[in-house]
Design brief:
Blueprint: E1 4-10, E2 14-15, H1 27-40, E3 46-50, E4 56-60, H2 62-73, E5 81-87, H3 91-103, H4 110-122, H5 127-134, H6 140-147, H7 153-160, H8 166-172, H9 178-189, H10 196-207, H11 212-216, H12 225-247, H13 253-260, H14 262-295
Parallel strand pairs: 2-4, 3-5
Antiparallel strand pairs: 1-5, 3-4
């Protein structure tokens, strides 16, 4: 059973948790926090646990401790002390509290979460137990973060530097082979895959084991006249739909429909909604076909 006590501790007798999930601290935001603490004092004590004689490890509040250190280095923290709640907690509870504190911050990176979750799993917790301990009702967050650890190191660097979008990374991480991941990343870089749906379709093609022959029934086969006519008809349909939509409603048509036949106006709206759904499905099928074609190159 844990015991708690609020104390003023020597700042430099407090040290951070080496397993803290968060590894990067924005210098500008630390400066803002230090300025706030200097002006208003520390509004919320940090939490620490004793680690021997005159030594305490941070359980929660490393940013606040770092901001105090900035003030102390500048001679702006009289007494060089920090208010802390001292609590005896075991290693597992300490790790859980560190993760909980960071889950509430928007600037904690998905990779930092992934490494923290991994440590807890390796420590003997199941994904379900970890989710319950963190209060996560949807365990997909844990699975998604853990899967990021499948990424090749160079892809992790691209992700962390902002050069690879999160929606792409989560799909790419589904691929176990780094060579497959690299192929998708290169295709994104060349502009062959644009948008989440195209990337998802390309990843699915790899996961389904589709080869070029699977996708096209023989890559070297020349398209027949019938197939070319099929594509031409599809293009003509899309052009016709585009022309019709571009025409839109004439001035006052909707007002007349509302006045004369509101039931018909409602029916026409319902039909447009169905058409919209069909158009979305057709779009998805074409994007999937384009993505699978790109995979065969």
């Amino acid at each position: 059973m844990s015991t708690k006590a609020l104390r003023l501790l020597p700042l430099f007798s407090v040290f951070p948790n080496p397993d803290q999930p968060r590894k990067k601290f924005d210098p500008a935001k630390l400066e803002e926090l230090a300025a706030s603490i200097k002006a208003n004092g520390l509004l919320q004590p940090i939490k620490v646990r004793p680690m021997g004689q005159d030594a305490w490890m941070i359980v929660a509040g490393e940013r606040r401790w770092r901001a105090h250190c900035l003030l102390a280095d500048r001679g702006q923290l009289p007494g060089c002390q920090i208010a802390a709640i001292v609590e005896s907690v075991d290693d597992r509870r300490m790790a859980i509290e560190a993760i909980l504190e960071n889950l509430q911050r928007a600037d904690v990176t998905p990779m930092e979460e992934a490494y923290a979750f991994k440590r807890m799993i390796e420590g003997g917790m199941s994904e379900r137990e970890l989710g319950q301990a963190l209060g996560l009702t949807q365990s997909w967050r844990i699975r998604d973060r853990l899967r990021l650890l499948n990424l090749a190191p160079e892809h992790i660097k691209l992700f962390e530097s902002g050069n690879l979008a999160a929606e792409a990374v989560y799909e790419i991480s589904r691929l176990e082979r780094h060579a497959d991941q690299t192929k998708i990343v290169q295709m994104i870089g060349r502009g062959q895959l644009t948008g989440y749906k195209a990337i998802k379709a390309a990843v699915a093609a790899i996961l389904d084991g589709l080869s070029q022959d699977d996708i096209f029934g023989g890559s070297t086969r020349k398209a027949s006249k019938r197939e070319l006519d099929t594509v031409a008809r599809m293009e003509a349909k899309i052009a016709s739909i585009a022309t019709m939509i571009a025409a839109g409603w004439r001035d006052g048509e909707c007002i007349v429909a509302r006045k004369v036949a509101p039931d018909k106006a409602r029916l026409m709206a319902d039909k447009l909604k169905v058409i919209q759904s069909h158009c979305r499905q057709m779009e998805n099928e074409l994007r999937e076909a384009a993505a699978q074609a790109a995979m065969a190159l």
